[in-house]
Amino acid sequence: MSTGEFVELNTENEHILVCLSSSPSNEKIIRTAAKMARDMRARFTALYVQTGKRERESDKRRLEAHVQFAKESGAEIVMTHGENVPVQIAEYAHLSNVTKIVIGQSSAKRNHFFSKQTLTEKLIEAVPDIDIHIIPDAMNLDNYRKPHGAVYVGKPTMKDSLLTLFIFAVCTLIGLFIQKLQFTDTNIVTIYILGVLLTSILTDGYLYSIGGSVLSVFLFCFFLTEPRMSFQTYAVGYPVTFVIMLISSVITGTLAAKLKTHARLSAQSAFRTQILFDTDRLLQKAKNDTDILSITCTQLIKLLDRSIVAYVVEDDELSAPYIFSNKKKEQTEDLLTSREQEIAKWVYENKQRAGATTERFKDAQCLYLAICIEDNVYGVIAIPVDEYTFDSFEYSILLSVINECALAMENKKNIMEKEKISVLAKNEQLRADLLRAISHDLRTPLCSISGNADMLLNSGERLDDITKHQIYTDIYDDSEWLINIVENLLSITRLNDGRLKLKFTDQLLDEVIAESLRHISRKHEEYQIITECDELILAHMDVRLILQVLINLVDNAIKYTPKGSTIRICAMNENGKAKIQVEDNGPGICDEMKPHIFEMFYTGKNTIADSHRSLGLGLALCRSIIEVHNGKLVLEDNTPHGCIFSFTLPLSEVTLNE
Predict the structure, then answer these.
(1) What does the pLDDT read at residue 658?
(2) What's residue 604's pLDDT?
(3) Tally of CA atoms within 13 A in the half-sphere of 168 that contains its CB
(4) 455 φ, ψ to 5°?
(5) Cα dihedral angle (276, 281, 287, 289), rounded to 10 degrees?
(6) Count of CB atoms within 10 A of residue 31's CB?
(7) pLDDT at 10
(8) Contact call for residues 354 and 368 (beta carbons, < 8 A)
(9) 574: which residues sit within 8 A by CB, 6+ positions away?
(10) How is residue 606 annotated by DSSP?
(11) Distance CA 94, CA 90 (A)
(12) Which residues belong to any copy of the Histidine kinase domain (predicted)?
């Protein structure tokens, strides 16, 4: 390699796995693995294999501290369970594409040829294709020896002790009964083995399985062998039978207890996984922060079986506490004191956990956790802590649920902000379109009015009566057009802002149509307008707005159809509603324009019959007015050409007084 050259290691796909344990040296191992992960920019995972053995309280606390330290070091915490720890580590390493395993040097030593292999040696054999980094243990562990066997057996309880005695008393009675029926001793031994299995299933731990195995041998020897009521026996082979019976019972009971433990661990793991899955699924359907908080607290109640207190951030302040009960008779008053609320406020302000099981406010009734992502805090969850405290992995599930809650709230916030930005952008576009339309499209009639008025002022005495009449007519038409535009602007603005006060009355449609024609531009005289209305159609409407709809629709037909065209206004009773149609036989509207004709400020490319250009407000206003009346404005093609605009209104009930 020449000077200045260097080799860049490809560490993008590196995955480092560190094994968690309750050993005092495990913190050093985690620290070493974390440093490796940072230097290599690798994925970092901490794995704990739960074997089902009972551990001392000091070991539990040490393990929880190691789990917390691994989290703070950036590790993803994973838990699996199984009896064979090296096999579980190897299986996870292969499934997760682990490239390096960091593990401590086992303190166990092989003193002779028949000694069992250490965990490190077994792991090397199980994963020969993965780099294993063994961290030497520089600590003095002479004072720490992890106990085996009986130390992991729980303390005896009166309930399990009496249950064990009862099971074997029943087995002995059954054995005496079977013996009177001249059955062989093999059947009696089977009865006792069945008793050992039942004891393993119905009691907690290995103690009663092993104790039941020994007890079964003594009971069989004392009550069911000759001479009875004695531990002596006349039969030569019975001592061997007793030994085999004891070994069989111990093995059977131990295996049953292990199966029971692993079944419990599997059910616990499946339950926690289901909680996470359900939480994610339900949060995706939540509509607002209140729903998200309710779903989260409900799932935490299922997970922890205790009431939950929640605080949500409202207007940059923490709200009053919401309590979600687990339907048990719990004293919740202590969870809502001013002291507890002050702790919740501290957690909100500092974005750190506090309360019970922590170093800060450890005398609190609850553990307080912030619902936050980075610097955004959306609330605080308070979890009562009693004599039962959740373990590290239950705490991991708890944090995962709260993180899902924070992520859902963050997504809702982002969606709302995007909607606000979209609305602002749309309003800004509408404002720009309005200014453009006013600045360009209103200039023509205003210039016409100004020019005609100037002509009358300066040259009025030199104009003949016919010319003056034409100028007056043009001024009137232009002013009427401007008034109509202003009315449309005011109406659509009030409708969109919700400031338009509606006044619904019952009106005859033929009278409303006749009134609308009286307000139509004088140019309708150049068109053939036909009205066809069924008699006595009484509709429920705001007559001012419906008049404006009819005026706009007829004016629209006049603008876009040549002189001499026919415009037909029809009113009928159809399917229990009043239906009104405005038809014309003009050139019609092309297909590419139809999806946009009801949009505000859309004018299209059609040629207008007069010199005025439309602002594109009329049809948008008509649609809004009809929607206020719980109807829909529809465009259809006329035959053979032209357009049909139709809408419906609710019918009114006619009451006849005799």
Answers:
(1) 41
(2) 64
(3) 28
(4) -65, -40
(5) 10
(6) 15
(7) 47
(8) yes
(9) 648
(10) P
(11) 6
(12) 437-653
Which one is predicted more confidently, 60 or 493? Answer: 60
| 427-461 residue pLDDT tens | 677 667 666 666 655 677 788 888 888 888 888 78
Mean pLDDT in residue range 327-353: 81
pTM: 0.51
- Element containing residue 435 per DSSP (H, E): helix 392-441
In the block, residue with structure tokens 């206020």: 628
The 8 Å CB, 24+ separation contacts for 217-223 are 217/192, 217/242, 217/245, 217/246, 217/249, 219/168, 219/171, 219/172, 219/192, 220/175, 220/188, 220/189, 220/192, 220/245, 223/172, 223/175, 223/176
Secondary element (H or E) of residue 625: helix 618-628
| Identity at 575, one-letter amino acid code | N
Give dist(CA 602, CA 463) in Å, integer.
Answer: 40
Copy the structure tokens of residue 627: 């929607």
Selection from 372, 335, 373 nearest residue 355 by Cα: 335
CA trace torsion 450, 455, 458, 459 (10° rounding): -170
Report CA torsion sign: 344, 347, 350, 354: positive
Q: How far is CA 309 from CA 320, 373, 379, 406, in A?
A: 10, 20, 11, 16
What mean pLDDT value characterizes the chain? 79
Closest CA to 629 of 485, 520, 495: 495
Choose among 132, 93, 130, 103: nearest CA to 28: 103
Q: Which residue has the tokens 């009355």?
A: 505
| CA pair distance 585, 639, nearest whole angstrom | 8
- Respond yes or no on whether the N-terminal peptide bond of residue 227 is cis (omega within 30° of 0): yes
pLDDT tens track for 166-195: 888 888 888 888 888 888 777 877 888 788
Whether the Cβ atoms of residue 311 and residue 344 lie closer than 8 Å to each other? yes
CA-closest candidate to residue 194, choices 230, 158, 245: 245
* Whole-number pLDDT of residue 155: 64
∠ Cα 554 559 564 (to 5°): 85
pLDDT in tens, 218-264: 787 777 777 777 666 555 556 666 677 667 767 776 777 777 777 77
User: Would you state the pLDDT for residue 492?
Assistant: 67
Q: Cα–Cα distance between 468 and 479 in angstroms, integer? A: 16
Residue from 298, 300, 274, 267 nearest 401 by CA: 300
pLDDT at 645 over 90: yes
What's the CA gap between 284 and 443, in Å, rounded? Answer: 52
| Closest alpha carbon to 311 in 373, 377, 364 | 377
C-alpha 604/C-alpha 583 separation (Å) is 19
Residue 145 in this model has a pLDDT that exceeds 60: no
Min mean pLDDT across 155-164, 254-263, 288-297, 367-376 is at: 254-263
User: What gap in Å lies between CA 614 and CA 608, rounded to an integer?
Assistant: 8
The β-bridge partners of 572 are: 579
For residues 50 and 59, give the distance between their C-alpha atoms in angstroms, rounded to a whole number. 13
Per-residue pLDDT at 61 exceeds 80: no
Residue 178 DSSP SS3: helix
> How many other CB atoms are there within 10 angstroms of residue 603's CB atom?
17
CA distances (Å), 207 to each of 133, 151, 160, in order?
Answer: 38, 10, 10
Q: What pLDDT is recorded for position 647?
A: 94
